[in-house]
Structures are given as structure tokens and as C-alpha cells.
Amino acid sequence: MNFTRWSARLPGTQRRAAARDDRSPVPAARAEYARPEDAPAPPDDASPAPSGPAPAEALPGPAPAEALPGPALADLSAREILCRVPAPVALLHGPDHRVAYVNDAYEAAFGPRPSGVPAAAAMPELAQLSVLPLLDQVLRSGTARTVKSRRTAEGGSYTVTCTPVAAWDSEDKAAGEDVRTGHAGADASGEGGVLVYAADVTDHAEAAERLRTSERRHRETAVTLQRSLLPQELEQPDDLRIAATYQPGGTDAAVGGDWYDVITLGAGRTALVIGDVMGRGVRAAAVMGQLRTAVRAYARLDLPPHEVIQLLDGLAAEIDASQIATCVYAVHDPNEGHLVYASAGHLPILVRDEDGTVHRAAEPTGPPLGTGGWIHTSGTIALPPGSTAVLYTDGLVERRSEDIDEGVASLARALSGAKGTPQVVCDRLIRSLGVTAEHDDDVAVLVVQHPARTGSNAELFHNAALDLLGGVEAAPRARAFATGVLTSWRFPVELRDLGVLATSELVANSLQHGTPPMRLGLRRTDRRLIIEVTDGDDHLPRRRQAEPADEAGRGISIIASIATSWGSRRTPGGGKAVWCEFALPR
User: Fold this and answer.
1) Quick one: pLDDT band at residue 549, thresholds 50, 70, 90?
2) Closest Cα partner for 566 from 490, 498, 497?
């Protein structure tokens, strides 16, 4: 490489090269022996050259060039540097932040700005970017400040950093190299300034906004799906008053899979369900919808709670083995006065007595749905008249700063003082537990009240029962009992006759196909008449089409024709119950 051909083009290199030649004769000596044929021969008494490669100076070819230092920082022009910066840069000076300099990128982005004019008047973009309030702080504290991703009126987004600049004096001006103002005659009063550097982040801001819009739409879709899969209107049993609340998590929390349901089973019995799919978004909501539909289908079989949970356990593993779900399924029978429930990893039911005492449902509680290999069992908790039961998901009581048992205890304390209608109790519990619109998890609450009826309201609810003994006299006794009871309840003649006919058919079916003990039960609510016969045989009847020549097999068909609804179920003692209902005239 010919050093002299390119080094002369750099400013100041001739001076440095001359100075280097004066200081050391080594380069000249190396140039003198550049070619081997010009080198002098060694003396006769010189030692032989060592074996191995020859020294670099003796090898043919050009001599290596010495590394030269780059230009010193003091030799660079600050004005030229700032002018070439591709991002908008402005220099402000003095306590009123007068414009001292703007580079070409700044003028291209915001237009030309006059020098010497305060930034508040000459730079409206700084106000739009929320930079003006920072200038005094930066100048006063000597600390840089940054505002991130602020939008201007023209639609661009910038991240702006304001850096304090030390005061300059007349010596800087005299040097002709005022690096802060970039022009002669600038302020020489010794006042400091602020360097404003704006990075254009419009593309990043637009991408972030598109992402937020996509997430918002995804969340809205999940919330819509979630709400559409929840019951639009709760069934209201005759003996219970029920209200429920679902609140999705805040905007920073994805929608989960909380759900609840109320299912009337017939004969005055009601199933209460609440569950939680431990996931987020549309997928969790879809799994929740499948589980809720399955619960309603299994509930129609009128199975004990633990058998319903057992069926759900197998189904959850088939739907999605990676999704963990919890659920509690409870059945209320007005004749029993308690809840029979089974739980798959869910939080315990709380029951508040009329005097404010709160009870917590104890075991059994099995593992979450989908784990398999677990035999679920049922438990009971009393629900007498005047009491209130609360079923809920973990979003109501779980907090990152405390154990979940403390959250359940807080809910119990809030429930002990919560009075009013079920919807009022729901709202009070949510407020007491600090659940807001920005809560980090979705919440589902189901409140069930068993009202204590007195006075004229109590006259609308009656119960009557008769133990039946086998023999030919059982059917006549049952018809006579039903006639007397229905007459005392002041039913119309037509409804009374239909009730007596249904009683006769149910008792005859039990006498023919069942085993002792047998029992006839009549129940009146404010909306329906319920007739139920129990016996010790667990074979459920089914409706079939009897042939014209058959003398039997028409009893269930007759009941299905005259009653509003009918059904059967197995009882815990190993027998069965067959029932029918008649809607009362309004």
C-alpha cells in the first residue's frame, strides 16, 4: 500500500507524518532496505542466519504501515455532527428556553424554527409531546428526563430525551466553535441550556396500537362468548330465591372460564353448579361451555352429586387434558332441608344461618376435573329456612399477598353481616372483598336463600305423606288420602280429580313393580302440585307403547298425558322415587 498517496487526503496528516519523521529515523531506514538486492552484505565474521522464516524486514514486498490515530474529538465540529444526526435535535438556552439551534432532521419533521424565540412560542410540538414542563426541571436539576411515545398533532409519535447542557462563556465564542449554538454571536452570558433529542417511534407506536386493538378484540370476543355460555336468566325454584353475578377481570387480565348454573330437577329439587376452568381467553371459555352443557345433560339423569362429578371427570380429560377445571355440584331437596354436594377441587360452600352464624362445608373434596383415578363422594350441609348459601370461584377470595384460606375467612366475615335479597348479598360480598372493574381475575358468585315463610305466604306451601302397606287395600287408601288432602288444600275439582288419578297410577305401579317400604308424598307450592311415590326397588320405570291386547303398561303413559311433567330417580337408600307435577292455575 502506498501510504503517501492516501494519507495526504486527510486533514493534518502531513503535519503528523513530518513530526513522526523528525522523531524517529526508523521508517526511513526501513524504506532504504525495502528491496533485498539493495541491502549490504553481512561481514565475513558474522554468524550464520538462524534457521526458520526470515524477519519481516527481510521478506520481499512492501513494508508494513504504522497504524495512525483517528482525528481527535476536539478537531470535530459539533454543528456538523448535530446537523448530520438523522433524528430531530434542538438546542435551547436560558431560563426561558430560547431556540439556539435545530438540525435539518428537526426542520424536516416539524418545520423551521426561528432562533432566539422562546420554545413555548416557537415550538408547539414540544407542548404536544409534553416536553415543555420538563425543561425547567432539567435545567434546574441538571438531570436528563425522557418522555416515551407521545403523539403530535400531525400523528407522529416520538420518544424525547431532554439533556442538560453546561453553561458556555465568551472563550467558546471567540474560538469560533460554539458547539452548543452552532452560530456566532450566541448567548455568552454563561447560562445553561437543554439539548432536546427526539426519536421517531411512529412505527413502533402504530404496531403497539395494532397489538392493543387485537388484544382488545380478542378479549371482547372472549367476554361475549363467556357471557353467551352463561345462563341468560336463572331458573327460580319454588322453594329458593337465587341470584348470581359474573364479573370478568380487568383489561390487563384475560377472560377466564368461570361459570354457574341453576337446574330444576323436578319434584321441587334443584341443582346448583359453579365451576372454574383454570385458563384464559376463548379456549377456556369454550371448555367451560362444554362442561356446563354436560352438567345440564347429566343433571337430567337425576343422579347423585358424586356420580355427576365422576362423569364430568372423565369428560374433562377427553375435552382437553391440559385444562384444569374445578367444580362443585349441589342438590337441594325441600323435604330434606340440606344441600347434598360433591366437589372436584373447588372452594367450600358457605352457609349463613338466620342468626348470622356462618358454616363452612367440610370434606369430601376430590381433585380437579380431568385427573382421573379418584372416586368422588357426596357430603351434606344444612340449609334450613332463613339460611343463605354462597357458591363462588377463587377470583373472589384469592389474593397474591395472602393465603387463600384467609380470603375464605374474609368472605365468611362479610357473609355474616350481609342481609337483603340474593342480588343485594352478591353485590355486598363483591364490594367487601375489594373486587373492582380492574380486578386481576374473573369472579362468579351464586347466592341461594331458603326463605322462612310465615303468615299467609306459608299457607301456600304444604306437605302431606302416607306410608303404604302392601295388599289390595293400599291403592284405595292412597286414593282416599289424596282426595282428602287435595280437598283441604282447596284445589279446583278438575285438578283434584287429576291428582287423585295420578296418585292411583303411581301407587299401582309401585305395588306391581316395587318392594316395601312404600310411601306416598303430596306437596303443594305457590306454583305447582307435586305427587311422589317411593319404594325399595331401584329399577326405574320407563314409558312404553302398550299393545291393544295388553292389560298393563299404560300407567306411565297416562301420567305423562295428564301431568305437566314427570320423572324418576334412584334414592340414596337403594330404592327409587317416581313423581309427577301439575302447574297450578294463576
Assistant:
1) low
2) 498
- Separation of CA 313 from chain center: 24
> CB within 8 A of 227, min separation 6: which ones?
246
Q: What gap in Å lies between CA 242 and CA 264, rounded to an integer?
A: 12
32 CB burial (10 A radius; 0-12, 13-18, 19+):
exposed
Q: How far apart are CA 482 and CA 464, in angstroms?
A: 9
- Strand partners for 577: 534, 569
The 3 state secondary structure assigned to 125-163 is: HHHHCCCHHHHHHHHHHCCCEEEEEEECCCCCEEEEEEE
> Among 312, 326, 250, which residue's Cα sits nearest to residue 284?
326
| Residue 475, C-alpha cell as written in the block | 291403592
**How many Cβ atoms sit within 10 Å of the Cβ of residue 329?**
31
Residue 145, number of CB atoms within 10 A of its CB: 17
Closest CA to 536 of 517, 563, 559: 517
**Residue from 482, 485, 493 nearest 462 by CA:** 485
Strands 241-247 and 257-266: unpaired
How many whole angstroms from its chain centre is CA 417?
30
Instruction: Please check whether residue 429 is in contact with residue 236, taking contact to mean a CB–CB distance below 8 angstroms.
Output: no
Report the alpha-carbon distance of residue 206 to residue 380 in Å, rounded.
Answer: 57
Q: Compute φ and ψ for 208, nearest 5 degrees.
A: -65, -40
pLDDT score at 81: 82
What is the distance between the alpha carbons of residues 268 and 248, in angstroms, rounded to a whole number? 33
If one counts every other C-beta atom within 10 angstroms of the C-beta of residue 375, the result is: 9
378 within 8 A of 428, measured Cβ to Cβ: no
d(CA 496, CA 559): 14
Q: If you average pLDDT over every residue of the chain, what do you get?
A: 82
| C-alpha span between 458 and 465 (Å, rounded) | 18
Q: In sequence order, what are the beta bridge partners of 162?
A: 145, 196
CB 289 within 8 A of CB 225: yes
Which neighbouring-strand residues pair with 359? 351
Q: Are 391 and 408 in contact (CB under 8 A)?
A: no
What cell numbers appear for 528 in the block?
305447582
- Tell if the pTM clears 0.90, that is, is over it: no
Q: Are 426 and 244 in contact (CB under 8 A)?
A: yes
Pairing of strands 462-468, 518-524: antiparallel
- The larger pLDDT score, comparing residue 15 to residue 565, is at 565
Q: What is the mean pLDDT of residues 181-203?
A: 69
pLDDT for residue 53 is more than 80: no
pLDDT score of 340 more than 90: yes
Strand order in the sheet with 193-200: 98-102, 89-93, 193-200, 157-165, 145-151
Which amino acid does the sequence have at 141? S
Strand-pair category, 576-583 with 565-570: antiparallel
Burial class (CB in 10 A: 0-12, 13-18, 19+), 102: buried
The answer to whether residue 22 scores a pLDDT higher than 80 is no
What band does 504 get if pLDDT is binned at 50, 70 and 90?
A: very high
